[in-house]
Amino acid sequence: MENSSSNGPGCLAWLAILLTVLFVGLKLTGYITWSWFWVLSPIWIDIALAILIIIAVIIIRVVFE
């Protein structure tokens, strides 16, 4: 049996991609008038969470070693 989790982005990454495409489409068609900062927020929120997790792991390793 193959492990499907190693074949690409995880579920949250796909959600961020889907939301980004949806928000960009809505912005370009005029259905939303959000700034581009918020339209692209699913991307930068995922990046920020990843950075926070990496920092937390580094801090935990330093404290417990």
Question: How would you describe this structure to a colleague?
Answer:
Helix content is 72%, strand content 0%. With 65 residues, the chain is mainly α. The protein has one domain (4-64). The protein is elongated.
CA radius of gyration is: 17 Å
Low-confidence stretches: none
Question: What profile does the largest beta sheet have?
Answer: none
The number of helices is 3
Give the count of structural domains. Answer: 1
Would you tell me the structural class of the helices and strands?
mainly alpha
Roughly what fraction of the amino acids lie in strands?
A: under 5%
List the helices and strands and how they pair.
Elements: H1 11-29, H2 36-39, H3 41-64
Helix pairs in contact: 1-3
Short note summarizing the structure:
This protein is an all-alpha fold and 65 residues long. It has helices at 11-29, 36-39, 41-64.
